[in-house]
């Protein structure tokens, strides 16, 4: 019999709680020997989670041992204030892990797990939009934004939003009848096993910096995507040496000029694929690619999927 504690941190997000409880409840009724309780930091008062109110079963002071801790996602408005409010809970997670508990962080629950220090020198994942901030806060962790699941020494992290449910199926597979767990995943239409969240990346343009020149160059690259842009000519246009341009662009955006230009182009390709049926040849030529295979390979490199597969999944009906 496995005992599971579903942790509700201060600032928690409701997106995964109901799905987590549903999966565990179905697993119970399907013969998996497990029990679970919802655990809060310091009281059993109802917790408002969006439109729902959830009453915890226990507090962390009452849970002395558990086989698995599931850390629910967080909503971040003031990141540091939320982490400060969860200090007792962070210490509790560290303490129980040292006593033998496994830990799963769902989506942005990775903030809590990373704050324990247990992820240092290990791989981890989270929602792609949180990775840059997590890298800044916890540089000792190897953040793998493309991964749906990481698992090292009993510490499991997951991708973003509902993709995080894959890690629950993964954990159930470790301890219970695999055919039973597969039926649960199929019944809930969970796409398991899925290894990458690359197809769901949303290009954020990396413009949260203060280098005005680089912001102008980013705008230029986006307005002229699909055109043959020579970076020496681009540097001359903006009265800067090519070497300085490369250095400043990488410092401001975290990416090279070439990588950024490719990501802009693939983001435009995704828009075409989502809007209407289009062949790979038409798409490549529309975006200025003569070599269709090179375009296909670039699309796969950036998104983790092929253009026709992406269109099959995301084409507007």
Could you write a compact summary of the structure shown?
This protein is α/β, with parallel strands linked by helices and 317 residues long. It contains 14 helices and 11 strands. A 7-stranded mixed β-sheet has the order 5-2-1-6-7-11-10, sandwiched between helices. The protein has a two-stranded antiparallel ribbon with strand order 3-4. Strands 8-9 form a two-stranded parallel ribbon.
Measure the end-to-end span.
45 Å
- Basic shape: globular
H and E string: EHEEEEEHHEHEHEEEHHHHHHHHH
CATH class (first level) name of the largest domain: Alpha Beta
List the topology elements.
Layout: E1 2-7, H1 17-29, E2 34-40, E3 47-49, E4 52-54, E5 58-59, E6 68-71, H2 79-85, H3 87-98, E7 102-105, H4 110-115, E8 123-124, H5 131-137, E9 142-143, E10 149-152, E11 155-158, H6 165-175, H7 178-187, H8 212-223, H9 231-237, H10 242-253, H11 257-275, H12 280-286, H13 292-303, H14 307-314
Parallel strand pairs: 1-2, 1-6, 2-5, 6-7, 7-11, 8-9
Antiparallel strand pairs: 3-4, 10-11
Task: Please tell me about this protein's structure.
The chain has about 325 residues and is α/β, with parallel strands linked by helices. The protein has two domains: about 1-195, Rossmann fold (3-Layer(aba) Sandwich), CATH 3.40.50; about 210-315, Arc Repressor Mutant, subunit A, CATH 1.10.10. The protein has 14 helices and eleven strands. The protein has helices at about 15-30, 80-85, 85-100, 110-115, 130-135, 165-175, 180-185, 210-225, 230-235, 240-255, 255-275, 280-285, 290-305, 305-315, and strands spanning about 1-5, 35-40, 45-50, 50-55, 60, 70, 100-105, 125, 140-145, 150, 155-160. Strands 5-2-1-6-7-11-10 form a seven-stranded mixed sheet, sandwiched between helices. β3 and β4 (about 50-55) form a beta hairpin. α1 (about 15-30) packs parallel to α6 (about 165-175), α6 runs antiparallel to α7 and α11 (about 255-275) packs across α13. The longest helix has 19 residues, at about 255-275. The N and C termini lie far apart (about 45 Å).
């Amino acid at each position: 019999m496995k005992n599971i504690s579903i942790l509700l941190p201060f600032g928690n997000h409701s997106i995964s709680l109901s799905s987590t409880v549903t999966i565990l409840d179905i697993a119970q009724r399907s013969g998996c020997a497990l029990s679970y309780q919802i655990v809060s930091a310091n009281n059993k008062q109802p917790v408002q989670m969006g439109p729902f109110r959830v009453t915890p079963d226990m507090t962390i002071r009452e849970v002395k041992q558990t086989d698995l801790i599931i850390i629910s996602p967080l909503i971040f408005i003031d990141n540091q204030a939320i982490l400060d409010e969860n200090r007792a809970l962070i210490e509790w997670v560290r303490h129980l892990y040292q006593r033998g508990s496994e830990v799963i962080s769902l989506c942005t629950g990775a903030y809590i797990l990373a704050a324990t220090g247990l992820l240092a020198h290990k791989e981890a994942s989270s929602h792609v939009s949180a990775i840059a901030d997590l890298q800044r806060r916890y540089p000792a962790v190897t953040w793998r934004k493309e991964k749906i699941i990481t698992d090292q020494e009993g510490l499991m992290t997951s991708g973003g939003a509902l993709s995080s449910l894959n890690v629950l199926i993964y954990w159930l597979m470790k301890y219970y009848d695999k055919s039973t767990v597969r039926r649960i995943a199929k019944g809930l239409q969970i796409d398991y096993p899925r290894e990458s969240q690359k197809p769901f990346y949303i290009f954020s343009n990396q413009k949260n910096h203060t280098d005005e020149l680089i912001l102008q160059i980013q705008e230029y690259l986006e307005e002229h995507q699909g055109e043959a842009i020579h970076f020496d000519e681009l540097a001359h246009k903006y009265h800067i040496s090519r070497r300085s341009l490369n250095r400043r662009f990488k410092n401001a955006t975290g990416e090279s000029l070439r990588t950024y230009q490719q990501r802009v182009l693939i983001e435009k390709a995704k828009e075409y694929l989502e809007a209407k049926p289009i062949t790979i040849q038409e798409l490549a030529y529309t975006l200025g690619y003569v070599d269709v295979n090179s375009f296909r390979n670039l699309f796969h490199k950036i998104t983790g999927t092929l253009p026709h597969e992406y269109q099959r999944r995301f084409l507007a009906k």
